[in-house]
Amino acid sequence: MAATIKCGGDRDTSESTMSVKKVLCSAAPLTLRIVAECPVTKARACDLTLPHCTVSTPVFMPVGTQGTLKGITADQLDSLGCQICLGNTYHLGMRPGPDLIEKANGLHGFMNWKRNLLTDSGGFQMVSLVELSEVTEEGVKFKSPYNGKEILLSPEESISIQNSLGSDIMMQLDDVVSSTVKGPRVEEAMHRSIRWLDRCIAANKNPDKQNLFAIIQGGLDAELRQACLNEMTQRDVPGFAIGGLSGGEEKDDFWRMVTLSTEHLPREKPRYLMGVGYAVDLVVCVALGCDMFDCVFPTRTARFGSALVPWGSLQVKQKQYAKDFQPIDPDCQCPTCRRHSRAYLHALFKSDTAAMHHITIHNISYQLTLMRSVRQSIVEGRLPEFIRTFMKRMFPSQDQYPSWAVDALASVNVTLD
Ligand SMILES: [Zn+2]
């Protein structure tokens, strides 16, 4: 069943296109080996080989900001077994800037991280963080929050910054529209994202060292998303992301757009679902056929004292933990749970930011361990049972199962009991 596929599905057989594809394919620094496919759902377990190491998928990728994750060092992330994390192009591009990072041998050298890095295009942050942004065909215009200067982030500029950062996976600049927006703006953004993809492909100076992923857009409109899938999958990019979701839309719309996307993405390329990090969403979307995920949620929620556990979350600040000498999760093998009690973390939270740091480590470990268990169950052909056990533990009774998850799982032949 295992198959090694170098990038490039052949859909177009015209000779000129084929020869261009061959050049791109032999150069793309990515291979995807499908280790196992679930016989019931659309899930798969793969070995994704990138320039810095092989990533076992399905994988959760923790999100960094200024070159490191808030509350955790590169060393600690490495010792948790993290094989790929995210760098934030918008923040790094603004400060300290791409020139300085290039001098430090890219973001790997700058943050002393030996595993893989994925960088975003910078566009999403701009649209969501900077109020004064304007999207034109040229790119995204905005005022620097640091010095007020007007800056244009074009597809070419985004790729130039990401080339300086030296990430293993770069994301195309896309025209981001909130998933709750409807109407002609969604269609415009989808078509523009396709044009910007072509400009990003042309601008990539390191196609032999850095993989450029396309981002499927189209909002919650099945026809638009299908049109975007048709167009983008004709481009020979090494991987695809499903974008424009996880922005507050109805979960029912969310999973239907995810499943439509995985249905039409090529089997031989990695599929990255952007902005998804809740445990239930991860497990369901693996079953729908996604390989890679990222989200700020586990690290952000840690800073508010919320620890992720198989039965949901545990609020360390709550009084009931003041005299509780158990670890956060007695079954967790992370450095925090091996050393510290709930009572200690509860007390520490009142006086010291170190408590956030300990919980951040636990939460990242929780996400990575969850994905390893999911992968193991795919490899051993027991994903449906894994999902049933996982849901039972997460929700005290069956009537608390979210209906969207029940429907999504039923669509891939998993009925919950
Ligand atoms: Zn732990």
TrEMBL record:
Coiled coil start-end: none
Catalyses which reaction(s): guanosine(34) in tRNA + queuine = queuosine(34) in tRNA + guanine
Matches recorded under Gene3D superfamilies: Queuine tRNA-ribosyltransferase-like
GO biological processes: tRNA modification
E.C. code: 2.4.2.64
Record-level GO cellular component terms: cytosol; mitochondrial outer membrane
Keywords: Cytoplasm, Glycosyltransferase, Membrane, Metal-binding, Mitochondrion, Mitochondrion outer membrane, Transferase, tRNA processing, Zinc
Family as reported in the entry's similarity comment: Belongs to the queuine tRNA-ribosyltransferase family.
Residues annotated as catalytic: D120, D294
Gene designation per UniProt: QTRT1
Protein's membrane topology: Peripheral membrane protein
Superkingdom of the organism of origin: Eukaryota
Region called RNA binding, residue ranges: 275-281, 299-303
One Gene Ontology MF term: tRNA-guanosine(34) queuine transglycosylase activity
Biological classification of the source: Eukaryota, Metazoa, Chordata, Craniata, Vertebrata
Annotated tRNA-guanine(15) transglycosylase-like domain residues: 41-394
Residues that, per the record, bind Zn(2+): C332, C334, C337, H362
Residues the record lists as binding substrate: D120, S121, G122, G123, F124, D174, Q217, G244
Biological role stated in the UniProt entry: Catalytic subunit of the queuine tRNA-ribosyltransferase (TGT) that catalyzes the base-exchange of a guanine (G) residue with queuine (Q) at position 34 (anticodon wobble position) in tRNAs with GU(N) anticodons (tRNA-Asp, -Asn, -His and -Tyr), resulting in the hypermodified nucleoside queuosine (7-(((4,5-cis-dihydroxy-2-cyclopenten-1-yl)amino)methyl)-7-deazaguanosine). Catalysis occurs through a double-displacement mechanism. The nucleophile active site attacks the C1' of nucleotide 34 to detach the guanine base from the RNA, forming a covalent enzyme-RNA intermediate.
Protein name (record): Queuine tRNA-ribosyltransferase catalytic subunit 1
Localisation per UniProt entry: Cytoplasm; Mitochondrion outer membrane
Cofactor dependency: Zn(2+)
